Amino acid sequence: MLLDDDHPDLTARDGDHWLDAWIFVAGRSAVKTVLVGGTTVVEAGRHTLRMAIAARFKAVVGKLAAM
């Protein structure tokens, strides 16, 4: 996982204070990239399969609504 070093909550931190700022203030908005097994799954804060996941979610919700 790579954090966005330009995120406003993380830029002025020294030592280990960035970790507290990330966990308690910035949270996921500071996550820039996530790699799993060498494959990028989040780039620029967005999941690479976001559109496919959203489409599957909408299909399942549609099926449930029709029940």
Radius of gyration: 17 Å
Which regions contain 5 or more consecutive residues with pLDDT less than 50?
none
Structural class: alpha+beta
Task: Give the overall silhouette.
Answer: elongated
**Treating each run of at least 4 consecutive H or I residues as one helix, how many helices?**
2
Give me the count of strands. Answer: 4
Q: Kindly report the average pLDDT value.
A: 87
Proportion of residues in helical segments: 40-55%
Strand content: 15-25%
Main beta sheet, described?
Answer: 4 strands, antiparallel
- Through-space gap between termini: 40 Å
Strand order of the largest sheet: 1-2-3-4
Structural features, described:
The N and C termini lie far apart (40 Å). Helices cover 40% and strands 22% of the residues. The chain has two helices and four strands. It has a four-stranded antiparallel sheet, with no helix packed on it. A hairpin with a 2-residue loop joins strand 2 (31-36) and strand 3. By secondary structure, the chain is α+β, with helices and mostly antiparallel strands. It has helices spanning 17-26, 50-66, and strands at 2-3, 31-36, 39-43, 46-47.
Task: Walk me through the topology.
Layout: E1 2-3, H1 17-26, E2 31-36, E3 39-43, E4 46-47, H2 50-66
Antiparallel strand pairs: 1-2, 2-3, 3-4
Essential attributes:
single chain, 67 residues, alpha+beta, 2 helices, 40% helix
Task: Describe the structure concisely for a colleague.
The chain is of the alpha+beta class and 67 residues long.
